[in-house]
Specification:
alpha/beta, TIM Barrel, eight-stranded mixed β-sheet, 26% helix, globular, binds S-adenosylmethionine, binds the ligand Nc1nc2[nH]cc(C(=O)O)c2c(=O)[nH]1, binds iron/sulfur cluster, binds magnesium ion, 7-carboxy-7-deazaguanine synthase, lyase, 7-CO-7-deazaguanine_synth-like
Length: 193
């Protein structure tokens, strides 16, 4: 769908320069998705792996973030092999609904109520990033956290339109349950992609 060089705005690598590759196509249907224009893959141009990776190479970062849409809908073996051959780190943002293909240095798993994750992703995830849209999402976050590996880093991130309402609750929750950390979408405050 698009590719751009920016600052990773979320999660464990928040603040790092990163080259984003956003793949079209998603059938998860989150009501609050902030990139709904990604859902229909046929509306977006197809680029070759070489076209994409040459842009990553031209940037100064060694971090390539594959996102979407739901990137795991696609076979990502060739793309991740090419990125790694260029010396790039491969990071993915995924809802975990599909079994992952490809080789990954960092897996950010953000489960969704709208479609159940695939069982395999829990032990693969390096970070769990749960979006908090309402109060019931805290208990739901714990359910998912209990299935991840012990070294998985746990984040709560407010849904953007509910941030004013949910952030105070998230802060209280993290103070009471400090295994969780806060993730804010800092790129949205900075008005960058
Ligand atoms: C657009 S999604 C694409 C990757 C993948 N489909 C997924 O959902 O993880 C990228 C990240 O943005 C988060 N996100 C999407 N819409 C959001 C919103 N309105 N507020 C906060 N986070 C949001 C998702 O949970 C995910 O962690
Ligand atoms: N700056 C920036 N950081 C991000 N982290 C995850 C994003 C995503 O949409 O996957 C994203 C994004 O869209 N922009
Ligand atoms: S899974 Fe990701 S891309 Fe798909 S609708 Fe949900 S937030 Fe949007
Ligand atoms: Mg985004």
């Amino acid at each position: 769908m698009e590719h751009f060089y920016t600052i990773q705005g979320e999660g464990h690598y928040q603040g790092y320069a990163a080259y984003f590759i956003r793949l079209g196509g998603c059938d998860v249907g989150c009501v609050w998705c902030d990139v709904k224009e990604s859902w229909d893959a046929s509306l977006h141009p197809q680029l070759s792996v070489d076209e994409i990776t040459s842009n990553v190479l031209a940037s100064n970062t060694e971090i390539a973030v594959i996102t979407g849409g739901e990137p795991a809908m696609h076979n990502l073996s060739r793309l991740t092999e090419s990125l790694k051959a260029l010396g790039s780190r491969t990071h993915i943002e995924t809802s975990g609904v599909y079994e992952l293909s490809g080789t990954w240095d960092w897996i950010c798993f953000s489960p969704k109520k709208f479609k159940q994750p695939h069982a395999s992703v829990y032990k693969q995830a390096n970070e769990l990033k749960v979006i908090i849209y309402n109060k019931s999402d805290f208990a739901w976050a714990e359910e998912h956290a209990s299935k991840t590996s012990t070294d998985c880093i746990l984040f709560l991130q407010p849904e953007w339109s509910k941030e004013k309402e949910m952030l105070p609750l998230i802060i209280d929750y993290i103070k009471a349950n400090p295994k969780w950390k806060l993730s804010l979408q800092i790129h949205k405050y900075m008005n960058i992609p």
